[in-house]
């Protein structure tokens, strides 16, 4: 998993110019005018192409990488990648110096060009981002890595382009961990699965012998905490993705569930149910010290830390129904923040710190929404028959969650699928998975 | 059309009529199977012994025992007292119309309500363990009020 991607930023300058940049993409609004962008297939010379064919089989790697970039950009809703058939200039020449008039002719405002080479056993990829109207280079970078990592190179280039054009960090070199589902509703088989953000490279981390739920990454994306019914004892587990080693978290005399890591990755926060009452606990993974955070005869669950670790948002039915609360990380100063009509669950703190995403149930419909951390400014982003459990993209601009369809009397027509939506409430998209899927959790950027 | 085909078609029509009438019957009896949001029928119920139902049902979001549920649990307790070598697992369940994590807690609460009631009728807590499945193991896979009411349950199962 921790496949080392050696990134050598070998030459070129980061930001060729900052003043008077003509292209700017405003991501705070909806996708009214996606920016027309041309992604030229990356050029590869025939010697390198032969070498790569030996490594990766017969694949046009220059075209593959440009397609990965195009798909990433398209899915943001902020960019409109232009059809490659319309491109006039050849990839190698465009990469040296584009004929800007040619690209203006097809209405491109930005152009991405690049070159792929095999140097010894490594793949070297360089790319440039051009501002067509200004007729200038905006960004140029090169990466060296093992050939197998070519998809990640496509994602990293997208991150760099996105960052240069929007001023915000990207979210493309990331993974999603989720629960893969199959079988009838009454005997659903569930496995932990991990895939690239764009749905490629799916791997299963458990075999489906026991029920598993709610996986979440640690901040370095090497560990996962989740709930497993191993030996019919529902407990929070820790899994090292690289080694596959699993261990139960703590020695609680009852069900532990709803786990998440603290922002420093040192603690796991979760619920522990005892005698019909669920409270929130933390366990320090180094010292194994367990701390009880809430103590209330109601259900307290779905805890999530603020990015600075000082506050915790959680879900409690102490008012009679599920509502969202915020407290200090030591459990003091508990305040209810959700006061709208309906019931509220699964609060999760934005990586930017200013918002909490949640699930809301009102009059038989489920909503994914966001509110500020004082509970004000509630905005519902999407309504559906059933959906829940939002997870933030690392830049705090997109939410991924899962939906279930209404089934017929015999369970027919049931499906569970992953979806994403922008914080703006626009750009709702199905996230393709190989099987039915639920409980998605977004990793942080793999390359920081 | 030869005779065999004719007979077969008659048969299909008859079966279809039976199926349809069964549906009709079910629909008309539905209201009486749910009272105050709690399932009161016996379609999904299994029996620990003759006359000892294995499960009790709950209203949406609730973990309060109804009169009928208490009656069922007293029957269970009486039977457990005469079979004192047996131990039991009480499985708590929720319907699909709630968030996964909350439903795990709710299932645990429901199982414990049943366990506590059995204990007040003299069953040792050592013989009773609980497990919550939240909404993960519905007994009826439909998405309708009847299915949901059958799924909001706690079920007593023999553990040895």
Write the layout of secondary structure elements.
The complex is a heterodimer of chains A (448) and B (160).
Chain A: E1 35-39, E2 43-44, H1 46-56, H2 61-76, E3 79-81, H3 91-96, H4 100-105, E4 110-119, E5 122-131, E6 136-145, H5 150-166, E7 175-182, E8 189-196, E9 203-204, E10 212-217, E11 223-228, E12 235-240, E13 246-248, E14 256-261, E15 267-274, E16 277-284, E17 290-292, E18 300-305, E19 311-316, E20 323-328, E21 335-336, E22 343-349, E23 355-362, E24 365-372, E25 379-384, E26 387-392, E27 398-404, E28 416-422, E29 429-431, E30 436-442
Parallel strand pairs in A: 1-3, 1-4, 2-4
Antiparallel strand pairs in A: 4-5, 5-6, 7-8, 7-30, 8-9, 10-11, 11-12, 12-13, 14-15, 15-16, 16-17, 18-19, 19-20, 20-21, 22-23, 23-24, 24-25, 26-27, 27-28, 28-29
Chain B: H1 3-33, E1 34-35, E2 38-39, E3 47-49, E4 52-53, E5 55-57, H2 67-82, E6 88-93, H3 100-120, E7 128-134, H4 145-151, E8 153-158
Parallel strand pairs in B: 6-7
Antiparallel strand pairs in B: 1-2, 3-4, 5-8, 6-8
Count the domains of chain B: 2
Low-confidence stretches of chain A: 1-21
Average pLDDT, all residues of chain A:
93
> What is the oligomer described by this structure?
heterodimer
Structural Rg of chain B: 20 Å
The CATH class of the largest domain in chain B is Alpha Beta
Spans of chain B of 5+ residues with little confidence (pLDDT < 50)? 10-29
Number of domains of chain A: 2
Structural class of chain B: alpha+beta
The name CATH uses for the topology of the largest domain in chain A is Neuraminidase
Task: Trace the largest sheet of chain B across and list its strands.
Answer: 5-8-6-7
Shape of chain A: globular
- The beta-strand count of chain B equals 8
CATH architecture of the largest domain in chain B: 2-Layer Sandwich
Termini separation of chain B (Å)?
Answer: 60 Å
Spell the H/E element sequence of chain B: HEEEEEHEHEHE
Strand content of chain A: 35-45%
């Amino acid at each position: 998993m921790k496949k080392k991607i050696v990134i050598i930023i070998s030459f070129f300058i980061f930001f060729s110019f900052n003043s008077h940049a003509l292209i700017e993409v405003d991501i705070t609004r909806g996708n009214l005018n996606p920016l027309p962008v041309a992604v030229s297939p990356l050029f590869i010379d025939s010697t390198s192409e032969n070498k790569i064919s030996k490594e990766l089989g017969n694949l046009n790697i220059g075209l593959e990488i440009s397609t990965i970039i195009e798909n990433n950009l398209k899915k943001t809703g902020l960019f409109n990648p232009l059809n490659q058939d319309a491109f006039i200039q050849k990839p190698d020449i465009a990469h040296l110096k584009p004929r800007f008039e040619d690209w203006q002719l097809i209405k491109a405002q930005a152009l991405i060009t690049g070159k792929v080479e095999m140097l010894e056993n490594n793949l070297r990829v360089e790319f440039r981002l051009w501002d067509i109207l200004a007729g200038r280079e905006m960004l140029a970078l090169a990466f060296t890595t093992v050939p197998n990592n070519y998809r990640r190179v496509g994602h990293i280039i997208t991150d760099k382009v996105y960052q240069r054009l929007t001023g915000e960090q990207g979210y493309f070199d990331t993974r999603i961990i989720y629960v893969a589902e199959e079988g009838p509703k009454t005997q659903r088989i569930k496995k932990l699965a991990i895939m690239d953000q764009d749905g490629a490279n799916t791997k299963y981390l458990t075999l489906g012998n026991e029920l598993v739920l709610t996986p979440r990454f640690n901040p370095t994306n090497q560990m996962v905490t989740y709930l497993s019914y191993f030996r019919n004892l529902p407990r929070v587990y820790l899994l090292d993705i690289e080694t596959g080693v699993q261990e139960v978290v703590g020695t609680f005399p009852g069900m532990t569930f709803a786990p998440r890591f603290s922002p420093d990755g040192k603690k796991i926060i979760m619920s522990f149910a005892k005698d019909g009452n669920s409270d929130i606990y933390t366990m320090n993974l180094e010292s194994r010290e367990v701390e009880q955070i809430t103590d209330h005869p109601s259900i307290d669950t779905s805890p999530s830390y603020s990015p600075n670790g000082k506050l915790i948002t959680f879900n409690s039915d102490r008012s009679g129904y599920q509502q969202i609360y915020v407290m200090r990380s030591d459990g003091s100063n508990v305040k209810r923040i959700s006061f709208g009509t309906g019931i509220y669950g699964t609060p999760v703190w934005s990586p930017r710190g200013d918002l909490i995403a949640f699930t809301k149930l009102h009059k038989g419909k489920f909503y994914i929404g966001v509110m500020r951390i004082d509970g004000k400014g509630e905005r519902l982003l999407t309504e559906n028959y059933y959906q829940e459990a939002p997870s933030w993209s690392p830049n705090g601009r997109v939410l991924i969650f899962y939906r279930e369809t209404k089934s017929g009397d015999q369970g027919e027509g049931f499906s569970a699928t992953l979806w994403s939506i922008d914080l703006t409430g626009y750009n709702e998209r199905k996230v393709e998975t190989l099987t039915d899927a639920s409980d998605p959790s977004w990793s942080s950027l793999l390359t920081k | 059309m030869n005779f065999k085909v004719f007979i077969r078609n008659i048969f299909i029509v008859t079966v279809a009529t039976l199926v349809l009438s069964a549906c009709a019957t079910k629909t008309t009896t539905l209201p009486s199977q749910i009272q105050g949001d709690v399932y009161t029928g016996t379609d999904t119920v299994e029996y620990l012994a003759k006359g000892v139902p294995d499960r009790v049902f709950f209203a949406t979001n609730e973990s309060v025992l109804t009169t009928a549920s208490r009656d069922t649990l007293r029957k269970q307790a009486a039977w457990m007292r005469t079979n004192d070598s047996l131990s039991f697992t009480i499985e708590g369940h929720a319907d699909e119309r709630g968030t996964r994590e909350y439903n795990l807690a709710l299932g645990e609460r429901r199982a414990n309500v049943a366990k506590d009631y059995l204990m007040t009728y003299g069953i040792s807590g050592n013989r009773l363990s609980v497990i919550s499945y939240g909404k993960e193991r519905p007994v009826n896979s439909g998405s309708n009020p009847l299915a949901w009411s059958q799924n909001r349950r706690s079920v007593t199962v023999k553990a040895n």
